[in-house]
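Example protein was shown:

_____
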Amino acid sequence: MRNGRGHYKWKNGDTYSGQWKDNQMHGEGTLIKKNGEKFRGSFKEGKKHGKATEIHKDGKRIDCHYEEGILHGKFTEYDKNGNVIRKGEYEKGLLKN
């Protein structure tokens, strides 16, 4: 059973480095998908939870917030050069207008 800090690579090629609790991602960590997309932030009981930064394979970055694995709260999206593309807010996974 994984507890504390550690690194894991799944059979599909995804990797996680960070904190574990009871064999689940829990606390701060970085999840890197096989396709190159990255998620840096907090996890709670295996789900994204709290402040996060997502970096897409095209270089686009999103600073956002999750609750129980669902986007919730304000976000800012940047292009690969760091220029703000848009700002907005999610409520329980739905983009607010």
DSSP finds no helices and ten strands in the chain. The first strand starts at residue 4 and ends at 9. The mean pLDDT is 96.
